[in-house]
User: Fold this.
Amino acid sequence: MRVIAIDGPAGAGKSTVARQVSTATGLRYLDTGAMYRCVALAVQQTSTDVHDADAVGQIARDVAVVIERDAAKLNGVDVTTEIRSSEINGLVSIIAAHTPVRDAMREQQRRWIRDHNGGVVEGRDIGTVVFPDAILKVFLTASPEVRAERRVGQTGGEIQAVSASIAERDHLDSTRIDSPLKPSDDSVIVDSSDRTIEEVVAEIVAYFERVDRG
Ligand code: DC
Assistant:
């Protein structure tokens, strides 16, 4: 399968870069963070205890999550805006640490790739766990200051609060037991701190063309 895995911490520019890599390569784009966000929203809507791994896992298996290029649907309802709220930012890394949730999400992500004949898949564990045979693995990162500034530029908010929220999420995502955020041994590490999106996209597309040709 032609899979380009793009992993990295919050605010590194993964979605913007992955969308443009998708356009340049013709591979479809999948935002796996949006899938976890939909489960977090379902947990919030049903007032389920976020720390109850079995109950949250059951929700992850039961809900219908459809992620399109720019839109997310939960049980048929458009939730594109709701899943980006600060409340969901606070919940998502907690529910994403539960193994039953990750098992359900991984299965859906692999099915999506089979149905779409490959893709540009962005997340935290795509190269390490979900698609260990991806033909290209990128670990996209940037300094904490740059990531916080970019998030404020995208979604507004106050820089100190946004920095603290990103730091909390980085901590939970990289210290969890099940598939923590870390670069896979065979990934290309790309630091986007001092570079434009166009430069980063061009670098990734050049790597892809090299490996895709064999
Ligand atoms: O990319 P994002 O900020 O929308 O991701 C939201 C959260 O989902 C992130 O903090 C951790 C979790 N996540 C994950 O655990 N594994 C993935 N493959 C993608 C996201």
Notes: The domain at 1-28+120-214 is CATH 3.40.50.300 (Rossmann fold). The two ends are 13 Å apart (CA to CA). Residues 10, 32-33, 36-37, 92-93, 96, 123-126, 169, 173 surround 2'-deoxycytidine-5'-monophosphate (CB under 6 Å).
